[in-house]
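Rotation project, supervised by the postdoc (A.L.). Task for the rotation student: set up a whole-complex structure prediction and record inputs and outputs verbatim in this book. Inputs entered:
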Amino acid sequence: MTNLIDIKGVIHAYQTENGPLPVLDDLNISVPEGDFCAVVGPSGCGKSTLTRLIAGLMKPDQGEVWLHGEKVTSPRATVGMAFQNPVLLEWRTILQNVLLPLEIVPNKMTKAQKEERGRELLTLVGLEGFEDKRPSELSGGMRQRASLCRSIVHKPDVLIMDEPFGALDAFTREDLWQTMHRLREEEPFTGVLITHDLRESVYLADEVVVLSGRPATTQHVENVKLGGRTDLEVIYTTEATDILHRLRHQIEIAQGRAKSEEAA
Amino acid sequence: MKHWKQIATPALAIVLFIAFWEFIVWVNQWPNYKMASPSDLIPAYAKYWNLFLIYGWQTLWRTVVGLLVAVVFGTLIGMIMGFSRTMRDALYPLLVGFNAIPKATVVPVLALILIGHHDLNTVLIAFMISFFPISVAVSIGLSTLEPEYRDILRALGASKWTIFWKIALPKTLPEFFGALKVAVTLAFIGTNLMEIVEPHGKGLGHLFDSGKINADYPLMFAVLIALAFLGILLYYIVVGLEKIFAGWAERPQS
Ligand SMILES: Nc1ncnc2c1ncn2[C@@H]1O[C@H](COP(=O)(O)OP(=O)(O)OP(=O)(O)O)[C@@H](O)[C@H]1O
Ligand SMILES: [Mg+2]
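Outputs recorded:
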């Protein structure tokens, strides 16, 4: 199978008042079609920068980002994005918020078809009956669910998520992890998930990429194989805990708190 | 029931205010050249009602036109400053300086430049005095738009114009209406300033002036009240528009 996302030798620096700030340094990530790739790394190492590069919102100084065998030079309608902040528009109802991308992305759907699509998705994430509510009438977790629906309503090939569950409490977060699995069963997409939560990365992703501290390079790639299980208990199996241990260790290396084997 | 209360409460407040005013004048035995009482105003309105209609209309339409120009121009300037950091840095001191000039000094200058064009003069002053808060509100609204709001549309390839129309503009509306309420009052000040400082026989300002010349004190007070009435009228029209276009920003009362 081909890689849907190919990040090849990406180098990027921000121009700041104190000169250039190197953020990404020779970053390489490949995600096969249909896979979910979690990206973890120390705070401020350049993860959000990476999402902006994949989405085509910025161009890297050097290196290339490829989606579907095409080099990314500008934003494209085949990408969906979700952020830590659900950014729902307060002057629209939940359903109207979910349908927003369909007003931008060219499509041949009728108004009724769009509405049906939106309602279907909202039902899938458990928001049936909230279609006509305002965002302020929903809880944080519900808003994030609506935001997820919006990010995939136009059937993107690639879903990019920047710490989408970061602001939620532990139980709501686990609920949303399961919702995420349900969405993946119904909607085929390739995903990039930025997260600070190692358990989240192991539960949701097919591979976990650990980035080094700033400037970030690909430090470690962990393949997660949990036999296709999607129940929460799987996090507590020995396979999962082994992976968690290895990831934990890699994060400590990335933070400079532990020595890598090669260096030792 | 709720609706009824919404009208009854302010109406009662106005009645109480008028009663208090009448009472104060009566208790102090003030002559009407010192302080006219509400009952003195009734004959003034009865005598000059047609003048009030004609001059009131002149004041009103010139204020509204000035305000509309202020909305268009103020929004444009606000957009330019909101979208471009450089333009904001460049225009801000100019705007602040312009706003700081007391408009009473601009009136004679303007009257000289555009001699004879009374309507234009008056509209221009109403505009000049009222566009500043609108510009500031729009520019702040646009420049403080969180980047994520832009990115959810930009990531799909939406144009700048689409982002403005679908996100930036509606998100700025509450600030815009807040500024518009201030601008309404300012525009009235502008119109009357021109009518009184450079009298040209038009508007409530002129009626006020003729009251002064003829020592018709109740008439002067009657003009003040008429101005207040027009001000309230316009203000509530703006509140109505705000309810329609930015009603979502209102917190539900609990
Ligand atoms: N527009 C910008 N201009 C200058 N520097 C920036 C800009 N955006 C981010 N940075 C800097 O680049 C570095 C990486 O930022 P980025 O947001 O990609 O990190 P992150 O890994 O997402 O952090 P976090 O884990 O806190 O979300 C940070 O040090 C940040 O201060
Ligand atoms: Mg980030």
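Student's summary: The domain at 1-78+157-264 of chain A is CATH 3.40.50.300 (Rossmann fold).
Supervisor addendum: Helices of chain A lie at 47-54, 94-98, 100-104, 111-124, 140-152, 170-186, 198-204, 238-254.
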